[in-house]
């Protein structure tokens, strides 16, 4: 699933490409009766409403909140997109061919270029909100603070993490109600850098270690953005190009390989923790 760096990379790309453009048409081949999708474009009835509301609207701005992309339109409407496990945007002119056969949603703009949403597993969410209340809706109102925000200090970090005393540190880092945007890949990389075992209960993580995790969180997420995200799986940027963070993994999916920490001598192990895979060094992560 795209995490904060991938969603931020996409958001920055969209901001450069589509702000100021006007929506001329929208299309989807999604068609579900799943009640969980009743307020998403995958539902034909909602799509009819969505299409009516967005046609003729201009893109005013694009922002990110956690793993969500918000495309703000004129007349105070906002398209909210969560890419889920396999979704990504493409911008330009693409054909639904063997490479891009998973395109299921398209916006056509007044410059005749198009914004495509490719989603192999069709788990992605696209809905429409009122801009003024978007952050108060069920989609966004229970999300923790942004870890790269200027207001996100070590004090704030500790207060958030320590709310889950009994939780395992990896699971707590991934809890979107605690901190926004961190998932499986970056939690592994953060804890490797901080030298903390992913299974350690929060109540047994010392103050010094919390400071190391805080520092590693900011450094790792910034590095992910600098490398254009992680494309070990399906993620691509809006130009169809892969990110390069996967070339710099220290621990994620390196099971059985030697730890890259100098003079460590450890081996990367994999373990399922609360239903999610965790990768860690068996020596320096205590």
From TrEMBL:
<keyword id="KW-0234">DNA repair</keyword>
<feature type="domain" description="Formamidopyrimidine-DNA glycosylase catalytic">
    <location>
        <begin position="2"/>
        <end position="124"/>
    </location>
</feature>
<comment type="subunit">
    <text>Monomer.</text>
</comment>
<feature type="domain" description="FPG-type">
    <location>
        <begin position="250"/>
        <end position="286"/>
    </location>
</feature>
<dbReference type="GO" id="GO:0006284">
    <property type="term" value="P:base-excision repair"/>
</dbReference>
<dbReference type="InterPro" id="IPR020629">
    <property type="entry name" value="FPG_Glyclase"/>
</dbReference>
<keyword id="KW-0863">Zinc-finger</keyword>
<dbReference type="Pfam" id="PF06831">
    <property type="entry name" value="H2TH"/>
</dbReference>
<dbReference type="GO" id="GO:0140078">
    <property type="term" value="F:class I DNA-(apurinic or apyrimidinic site) endonuclease activity"/>
</dbReference>
<dbReference type="InterPro" id="IPR010979">
    <property type="entry name" value="Ribosomal_uS13-like_H2TH"/>
</dbReference>
<dbReference type="InterPro" id="IPR012319">
    <property type="entry name" value="FPG_cat"/>
</dbReference>
<keyword id="KW-0479">Metal-binding</keyword>
<keyword id="KW-0326">Glycosidase</keyword>
<keyword id="KW-0238">DNA-binding</keyword>
<dbReference type="Pfam" id="PF01149">
    <property type="entry name" value="Fapy_DNA_glyco"/>
</dbReference>
<dbReference type="InterPro" id="IPR015886">
    <property type="entry name" value="H2TH_FPG"/>
</dbReference>
<comment type="similarity">
    <text>Belongs to the FPG family.</text>
</comment>
<keyword id="KW-0227">DNA damage</keyword>
<dbReference type="GO" id="GO:0003684">
    <property type="term" value="F:damaged DNA binding"/>
</dbReference>
<keyword id="KW-0862">Zinc</keyword>
<dbReference type="InterPro" id="IPR000214">
    <property type="entry name" value="Znf_DNA_glyclase/AP_lyase"/>
</dbReference>
<keyword id="KW-0378">Hydrolase</keyword>
<protein>
    <submittedName>
        <fullName>DNA-formamidopyrimidine glycosylase</fullName>
    </submittedName>
</protein>
<dbReference type="GO" id="GO:0008270">
    <property type="term" value="F:zinc ion binding"/>
</dbReference>
<dbReference type="InterPro" id="IPR035937">
    <property type="entry name" value="FPG_N"/>
</dbReference>
<dbReference type="GO" id="GO:0034039">
    <property type="term" value="F:8-oxo-7,8-dihydroguanine DNA N-glycosylase activity"/>
</dbReference>
<keyword id="KW-0511">Multifunctional enzyme</keyword>
<keyword id="KW-0456">Lyase</keyword>
């Amino acid at each position: 699933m795209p995490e904060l760096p991938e969603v931020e990379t996409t958001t920055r790309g969209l901001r450069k490409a589509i702000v100021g453009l006007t929506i001329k048409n929208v299309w989807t081949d999604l068609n579900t009766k799943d009640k969980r999708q009743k307020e998403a474009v995958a539902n034909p009835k909602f799509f009819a409403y969505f299409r009516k509301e967005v046609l003729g609207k201009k893109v005013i701005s694009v922002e990110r909140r956690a793993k969500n992309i918000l495309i703000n339109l004129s007349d105070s409407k906002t398209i909210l997109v969560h890419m889920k496990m396999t979704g990504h945007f493409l911008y330009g002119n693409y054909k639904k061919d063997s490479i891009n056969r998973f395109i299921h949603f398209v916006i056509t703009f007044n410059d005749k270029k198009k914004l495509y949403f490719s989603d192999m597993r069709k788990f992605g969410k696209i809905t429409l909100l009122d801009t003024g209340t978007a952050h108060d809706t069920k989609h966004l109102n229970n999300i923790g603070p942004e870890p790269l925000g200027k207001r996100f200090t070590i004090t704030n970090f500790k207060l958030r993490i320590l709310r889950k005393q009994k939780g395992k540190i990896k699971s707590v880092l991934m809890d979107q109600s605690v901190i926004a945007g961190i998932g499986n890949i970056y939690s592994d990389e953060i804890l490797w850098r901080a030298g903390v075992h992913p299974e350690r209960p929060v109540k047994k993580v010392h103050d010094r270690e919390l400071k190391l995790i805080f520092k590693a969180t900011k450094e790792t997420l910034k590095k992910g953005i600098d490398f254009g995200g992680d494309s070990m799986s399906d993620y691509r940027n809006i130009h169809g190009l892969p990110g390069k963070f996967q070339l710099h993994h220290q621990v994620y999916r390196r099971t059985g390989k030697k730890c890259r920490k100098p003079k460590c001598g450890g081996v990367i192990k994999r373990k399922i923790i609360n239903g999610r895979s965790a990768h860690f060094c068996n020596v320096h992560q205590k």
